[in-house]
Amino acid sequence: MMFGRTERGKPPVEPVTLKILVAGGFGVGKTTLVGAVSEIRPLRTEELLTEAGRPIDDTSGVEGKHTTTVAMDFGRITLRENLVLYLFGTPGQERFWFMWDELSEGALGAVVLADTRRLEDCFAAVDYFERRSIPFVVGVNCFEGSARYPEQAVRQALDLDEDVPLVLCDARDRTSVKEVLIGVVQHAMALAAERRQSVTT
Q1: DSSP calls for 100-147
Q2: Residue 162 CA to chain centroid, in angstroms?
Q3: Best CA proximity match to 183, nearest among 148, 149, 135
Q4: What string of H, E and C letters represents the secondary structure of 7-76?
Q5: Which helix (H) or strand (E) holds 150?
Q6: Residue 100 confidence class, pLDDT cut points 50, 70, 90
């Protein structure tokens, strides 16, 4: 394409756009993940943590965290010429969960980020997507210094169904995050194909 024209004889490519949510507990790395992979400057709605919020916001395990997402993070990644993902990072704290219904509208699937130091923080996200039949992948964010556990142990701790993919990832690394997002798309497409097949049989 040159100067706004398409090559002769070739129609313009209209990309398929897909919406993926990034969810998980407070301080798990959602903002970092969106920022690591977004090809545009991510939209962030972060505010400083305050003394007033200290009794509510449990920072144990993430003592270095000084800001929190209060609405959403937004980023975009082009996987192929005809496939664009829009990423919406959800707020992690319970008092902002009312926004999840709005953000999940029309979502293809989700990434639930988990931190093995605070696994219980992602229970709410797992439960949310299970109840609404939204396909999701659990990404165990491998922080420096965090303990490594066998996949089956993490799966049991989260009470995950066997068909829910669980992957190790690094929310700071673009290649690692891209693999997780591809996993979400593949998982969602496989589930959609299964549902179509069950309707026709």
Answers
A1: HHHHHTT--EEEEEE-GGGGGGGHHHHHHHHHTT--EEEEEE--TTPP
A2: 19
A3: 135
A4: CCCCCCCCCEEEEEEEEECCCCCHHHHHHHHCCCCCEEEEEECCCCCCCCCCCCCCCCCCEEEEEEEEEE
A5: none
A6: confident
Residue 88 bridge partners (DSSP) = 21, 74
Taking the C-alpha atoms of residue 92 and residue 100, their distance in angstroms, rounded to an integer, is 10
Which secondary structure element, helix H or strand E, spans residue 164, and what is its range? none
- CA distances 115 to 7, 55, 98, 173, Å, are 48, 21, 23, 16
* pLDDT tens, position by position, 119-162: 999 999 999 999 999 999 999 999 777 778 899 999 999 999 99
CA pair distance 77, 91, nearest whole angstrom:
20
Mean pLDDT throughout 168-173?
95
**136-141 vs 166-169, strand pairing mode:** parallel
Query: How high is the pLDDT of residue 170?
Result: 95
The distance from CA 185 to its chain's CA centroid, rounded to whole angstroms, is 11
